[in-house]
Amino acid sequence: MQFKNKKIVITGASPDFGLTLSILFAELGAELYLSARTLEKAKATAAQVVEVVPDARVSAFQVDVTRPNEIAQFAEGVAALTDKVDILVNNASLWLSGSLLEVSEDHIVETINSTATGSILMTRKFLPLLQRSDTPDILFINSTASLENNPHSLANEAFSAAKAAQSTFADRLRYRLAGQGVRVISIYPPNFDNPSPLDEAKWFETRSHTEHMHLSARNVFECIQFALSQDRICSIDKIVLSNNNLLANGSHV
């Protein structure tokens, strides 16, 4: 298996794209360390992974990424189980839609803290474990909402700003770690559907540019797998996905 025995930390591993990532990496032979805002959600994801891959090695942790002490405890908990981490997937983020005046100030602060500050502190705490790996990768699940001149019809301005901060952090970190063997990869998907990878018909559905549909989680994961599978001399720093289906008004689905 391509990722056999790789030790992968996945944040935001609650039922959604985090669950999809967890199932797919487990099927590829990885050992998983999963976090979610509540322990119940993390354990639910772990249980579904084991149901699909009975011999999967999965550990679940409760982590609110807006709380630095919980991020530190997560890293300490993983360090107690393994001496290294091969891949850190910064997937945790608080989605926020609507206009600036439609959302509360608390939601704005939480969005910034979970998406930007949370991923920065998560990376900081896990970097020592990553540096012990022969194949360390840091992966950020970003969004086209963070990109200049790429308007996102649903995202709140605060969400876009948080994702832009995360993107800038990844760029600066990549420069800082140049020559140390640590790859820093950012994936920028637009809106995408998240069919279960266990539903083969929906997972492998072919979507045409003539249909008013979103991209699929399969499209996103195939890009992730491609980037992580390159020879170590090759770092695919960024992958920006777009929906090749424009509506009459020129906007993406």
From TrEMBL:
Keyword Oxidoreductase: yes
Record's keyword terms, sorted: Oxidoreductase
Keyword Oxidoreductase: yes
The organism's place on the tree of life at top rank: Bacteria
PANTHER family documented for this protein: 5-KETO-D-GLUCONATE 5-REDUCTASE, ALCOHOL DEHYDROGENASE, PUTATIVE (AFU_ORTHOLOGUE AFUA_3G03445)-RELATED
Family label: Belongs to the short-chain dehydrogenases/reductases (SDR) family.
Protein name: SDR family oxidoreductase
Lineage of origin: Bacteria, Pseudomonadati, Pseudomonadota, Gammaproteobacteria, Alteromonadales
